[in-house]
Design a protein that fits this description.
The structure holds 2 protein chains of 2 kinds.
Chain A: E1 2-3, E2 9-13, H1 19-43, H2 48-60, H3 63-88, H4 96-112, H5 122-148, H6 152-172, H7 206-223, H8 225-235, H9 237-242, H10 247-274, H11 285-295, H12 300-321, H13 328-349, E3 350-354
Antiparallel strand pairs in A: 1-2, 2-3
Helix pairs in contact in A: 1-13, 2-3, 2-12, 3-7, 3-10, 3-11, 3-12, 4-5, 4-6, 4-10, 4-11, 5-6, 5-10, 7-8, 7-12, 11-12, 11-13
Chain B: H1 3-32, H2 40-58, H3 61-85, H4 90-108, E1 124-125, H5 135-139, E2 141-142, H6 144-162, H7 164-174, H8 176-181, H9 186-212, H10 224-234, H11 239-261, H12 268-292
Classes of the chains: A mainly alpha, B mainly alpha.
């Protein structure tokens, strides 16, 4: 039991977490983040009601808006599933962004520069190579982590910069489309390398890949021995050791698959949206995925739902950019949201009560 | 390489290393108290933008530096509240702070992007000292913020290892329960050092926008905050090691930049990768060394302190 400084409130650990809090905390956190956002908009003299209304109707209020929100939901879902897999084992993969770029790079190679040209094999090769590239990129940081315990937060993050510069090098240099009027873009993909879309919308086949992956991830983490090993290792490394779990092998495997799934995002983004490799193909999905994974408490189905909300937030953010609201407002809202979720965990595991008047001590 | 170019690169290594140095010194203090703050990048960004706005409006870089310090401290306060009082996960809270900082700095700096600073910090050669051959132009031909860091490093080193308060700081980070029973207020100490750490990160960020660049651009810290976090491990939580470690990283940064201007055939994109690849390699080597020498992080680093579970 501790006393909150400056108040007469006591914080006490609950015997068991409150199941209602798992749902209530994220909802209240979203509302609080929006409230602080409204406050800062009002401070800079803007009409926050109108801005929020425009954002909401832009993201969810029309068929077009809704389809754009789903377009954003796809990369967010896939990336978050990959990040959540690593987080489950308390492996902090902050390198989703770089793994996306490496996946996009390898998929582009399969689409444009494959030694035997294009054909029925193009799409499977793009998926496989994209995932392989993302996975190997993550493995580069997993190996020193497994052997010497090198902090993976820093190494995965540094690898983001390297991957982004690598893609920039390609599109500004050797892979630049000769017919592209000197823009930093590769040539457009051939039809075999383009994912089919749903009707006239931009929603592409990646949606089904994402949903398939969600079910697969749920099955693996909840119903396999490996999924159980990951969970145990994440909760206590020493418990895992006593249970005879090979943590080193699991670090390598989990990071590889985490990176491979992020690599798949890169593949679906070039093959389903851009149809070419270009700078800025991921707008920070690797970072947003960290928030989504945490908000969804690493649950695969919750990840789809939260990704949809965040997709809407991003689409809404784009729409209000035309009225001078910078895109950084959305990033700020996302950071705020994570603060509130973290703070709200206190409500899940602790209860707050008033200190009796007599107790002056804080123990 | 002629001596002139060599001296110029070394002098640039110092300026390029200074923002990382301030941030790393701040992180040394926070981690010594047992709190891992991965929000350095975000605190530096908010420091850079608030410092720039203030210095731009007042035409005085010193006001900017003070405001940046306060802004960094405010950001750190959020982290301290979440991790010390609410015992939230320190990794996730730090990441949240960085993301919030990226967003907030972009939002605040929207109308200041690319504006030139009317009065950035100026180089003041130190009399006599700057006339020493080689060492003079490398170390004593800088702006006041660099000189300030020369004073700060030995002061912090002495404070941590040779004062009573420093002993208490280390006790809080190594064994908070024991520190608590000695009568040290663990919560107050952690708040204090996390906030001071944020203030130093704010100064580091402002150094980029008030002298090194000097201008405001979105995301201008470009990973230096993360390099500072890595540097703390490299420095084995010792301010003195952080000093030359920062200059080493600054040197790599300066070298990459210098090679670009020398018409080297290597693509600039590969040169830009250098500091990040270097950080990874150094981190691996240092972790191996620390492992062999049994040098570890402060024992309680990353763990929330709960009096009930004492």
């Amino acid at each position: 039991m501790i006393k909150l400084p400056g108040t007469n409130l006591l914080i006490e650990k609950k015997l068991s977490p409150d199941p209602a809090a798992f749902f209530v905390v994220p909802v209240i956190s979203i509302l609080l983040a929006l409230l602080v956002g409204a406050f800062s908009l009002a401070l800079s003299g803007r009409d926050y009601q109108q801005i929020y209304a425009t954002m909401f109707s832009g993201a969810f209020g029309s068929t077009y808006g809704l389809s754009e929100t789903i377009v954003k939901t796809i990369p967010l879902t896939i990336t978050s599933l990959g990040i959540a897999l690593a987080f489950r084992m308390q492996l902090w993969n902050i390198g989703g962004e770089g793994q996306i770029y490496m996946g996009a790079f390898a998929a582009t190679w399969a689409a444009l520069f494959f030694p035997v040209g294009t054909g029925w094999w193009t799409m499977p090769c793009m998926i496989l190579l994209g995932m392989l590239a993302g996975g190997l990129w993550a493995l580069l940081t997993a190996i020193p982590r497994a052997i010497w315990g090198v902090n993976e937060i820093i190494t995965t993050l540094m690898m983001n910069y390297v991957a982004i510069f690598w893609v920039n090098y390609l599109v500004y240099g050797p892979w630049k489309d000769p017919q592209g009027y000197n823009f930093p873009l590769t040539a457009t993909f051939p039809p075999e390398a383009i994912l089919p879309t749903l009707g006239v919308s931009r929603i592409h086949f990646g949606l089904f890949l994402g949903l398939l992956l969600t079910v697969l991830m749920y099955a693996v983490v909840q119903h396999t021995r490996w999924g159980y090993e990951i969970k145990v290792t994440g909760e206590s490394v020493s418990a895992a050791r006593y249970a005879g779990i090979n943590s080193k092998r699991n670090i390598l495997l989990v990071m590889f698959f985490s990176g491979a799934i992020c690599g798949l995002t890169g593949m679906t983004e070039v093959s389903g949206i851009a149809y070419r490799l270009q700078p800025g193909l991921s707008t920070g999905y690797g970072f947003t995925a960290i928030i989504i994974a945490w908000l969804a408490r690493l649950n695969p189905f919750a990840i789809v739902l939260v990704s949809f909300l965040f997709g809407g937030l991003q689409v809404g953010g784009y729409i209000v950019q035309t009225s001078g609201i910078p895109s950084s407002m959305v990033t700020m809202l996302q950071g705020l949201l994570l603060f509130f979720v973290l703070g709200g965990e206190l409500l899940t595991y602790y209860k707050i009560s008033k200190a009796p008047a007599s107790s002056g001590q804080d123990t | 390489m002629s001596q002139e170019i060599f001296v110029a690169i070394l002098a640039t290594a110092i300026t390029a290393g200074t923002p990382i140095l301030y941030a790393a010194l701040g992180e040394v203090l926070a981690e010594r108290s047992g709190i891992l703050n991965l929000g350095v990048e975000g605190m530096m960004l908010v420091g850079a933008v608030s410092g720039f706005i203030c210095a731009y409006e007042t035409a005085n870089p010193w006001y900017g530096l003070v405001v940046a310090m306060l802004a960094g401290g405010m950001m750190a306060l959020v982290h301290a509240f979440l991790t010390v009082t609410l015992r939230a996960n320190q990794v996730v809270s730090g990441l949240a702070l960085t993301m919030f900082g990226i967003g907030l700095s972009g939002y605040l700096g929207q109308s200041y992007v690319g504006l030139p600073l009317p009065a950035p910090f100026k180089i003041i050669p130190l009399p006599a000292l700057s006339d020493i051959p080689v060492l003079g132009p490398v170390f004593f031909n800088h702006d006041p913020v660099v000189y300030l860091s020369y004073l700060l490093v030995p002061m912090l080193w002495f404070y941590i290892f040779h004062t009573r308060a420093g002993l208490q700081l280390r006790a809080v980070g190594e064994n908070p329960a024991a520190a608590d029973s000695m009568g040290i207020n663990v919560f107050r100490a952690r708040y204090f050092y996390v906030i001071v750490g944020g203030m130093l990160a704010g100064i580091g960020g402002a150094y980029l926008s008030l002298y090194y660049v000097p201008s405001w651009m979105d995301n201008m810290i470009a990973g230096r905050g993360w390099i500072a976090v890595a540097l703390v491990i490299f420095a084995t939580w010792n301010p003195a090691n952080a000093l030359w470690g920062s200059y080493l990283f600054g040197g790599i940064d300066a070298l990459g930049f210098r090679l670009q201007t020398l018409n080297v055939t290597v693509s600039p994109y590969f040169l830009k990768m250098l500091p990040y690849i270097f950080t990874i390699l150094v981190l691996i080597l240092v972790t191996k060394r620390n492992l062999a020498g049994r040098i570890g992080s402060p024992q309680a680093l990353g763990l929330p302190y709960d009096r009930e579970e004492r």
